UniProtKB/TrEMBL annotation:
Protein name, UniProt field: Cytochrome d ubiquinol oxidase subunit II
Organism ancestry: Archaea, Methanobacteriati, Methanobacteriota, Stenosarchaea group, Halobacteria
Entry keyword Transcription: no
Subcellular location: Cell membrane
Keywords (A to Z) from UniProt: Cell membrane, Membrane, Transmembrane, Transmembrane helix
One Pfam family in the UniProt entry: Cyt_bd_oxida_II
Length: 330
């Protein structure tokens, strides 16, 4: 079953270094989608002035956001376990940026709890703003981090800023579809418009990001590969599906399309990077992967634990399926 080729471990014809490269980026995609709709709801929260509608926004994500956030820990843990040298390089090089991500996530988590503690208008205004800052800041900074990772830069490149904005727009589209599912009345009725506009902004930002990436000789050729072109075309088609589904009152399909766009975005980053996993140093997946038997034990453990985690999430979403009660609060 197992074959050792130089430093590479192969199972059933698949190199475990390649497998874990896919798995790590898969964890990132799952987080950006699942917690992405929570972030999107936080951004939409800023656009609603009615207190009851804001309570509905908080109630809609209440059972889910802390569970969805676990996938960021899974992503970081998977990167550390499979590619420890890459984890060390990225987290040391982007130390302040990742602390910013942590700070915004803490703010996003604290704000709803404090928002509900007092009926004071000033108090709720302050914590409402904190909730919005956390909900918008976290995906923006994660997008910047992902762009910097791809480009192999230490500072903040223009392309990375555009990727950060694109992630925020994509999250708003997912959040709009999610609120259309979970709420009723005027709030739900206005969500398709929010989602369509956010999708248009996302696709426009993707075009800008691709132009900026194409200016880099090392990425220009990769962008013209068949897989990269297919992912870009697929994103556009999924954007069309989202718009049609949102306008037709099919929020499940719209939410699924936003998930597809998220997966395509992360997959595009992975495709442009592969076989390198640390672009600044040129370290490849084969060079960065932990050795045998550690990678084999890691794979066996993941094969056992990931289905259990997915089962938990299936139970969670089933238990809290359907629209929230009109009087429900966080």
């Amino acid at each position: 079953m197992t074959e050792l080729l130089a430093l590479e471990v192969v199972w059933f014809g698949v190199a475990l270094s390649d497998l874990w490269f896919v798995v790590v980026f898969g964890f990132l995609a799952v987080f950006l989608f699942l917690d992405g709709w929570d972030f999107g709801v936080g951004a939409i929260f800023a656009l609603r002035e009615d207190h009851h509608e804001r309570e509905q926004c908080l109630a809609a994500i209440g059972p889910f956001w802390d569970g969805n956030e676990v996938w960021l820990v899974v992503f970081g843990g998977g990167l550390f376990a499979a590619f420890p040298s890459v984890y060390a390089a990225l987290f040391s090089r982007h130390y302040l940026l990742l602390f910013g991500v942590l700070a915004t996530l803490i703010l996003r988590g604290m704000a709803p709890e404090f928002f509900e503690q007092r009926e004071s208008e000033g108090w709720q205004r302050w914590w409402g703003r904190a909730f919005v800052v956390g909900s918008v800041g976290a995906p923006f900074l994660l997008g910047v981090f992902t762009g910097n990772w791809l480009l192999g830069v230490e500072g903040v490149a223009p392309a990375s800023l555009v990727v950060g904005l694109a992630v925020v727009a994509l999250n708003v589209a997912a959040g709009a579809a999610f609120l259309r599912l979970k709420t009723t009345g005027a709030l739900a009725d206005e969500m398709p418009g929010y989602g369509v506009r956010a999708t248009a902004v996302y696709l426009a930002l993707v075009v800008v990001a691709l132009v900026l990436l194409a200016l880099r000789p090392g990425l220009r050729e990769a962008l013209l590969s068949p897989v990269a072109i297919a992912l870009v075309v697929g994103s556009v088609l999924l954007g069309v599906v989202y718009v049609v589904a949102a306008r037709a009152g099919r929020p499940y399909l719209a939410l699924g399309a936003s998930g597809g766009m998220t997966g395509a975005l992360v997959a595009l980053v992975a495709v442009l990077m592969y076989p390198v996993v640390e672009p600044m140093t040129g370290l490849t997946v084969e060079e960065a992967i932990i050795g045998a038997p550690a990678v084999e034990l890691l794979t066996i453990g993941a094969a056992i634990l990931i289905p259990l985690v997915l089962t938990y999430f299936g139970v969670l979403y089933s238990a809290f399926s359907g629209p929230i009660d009109v009087e429900e609060s966080y």
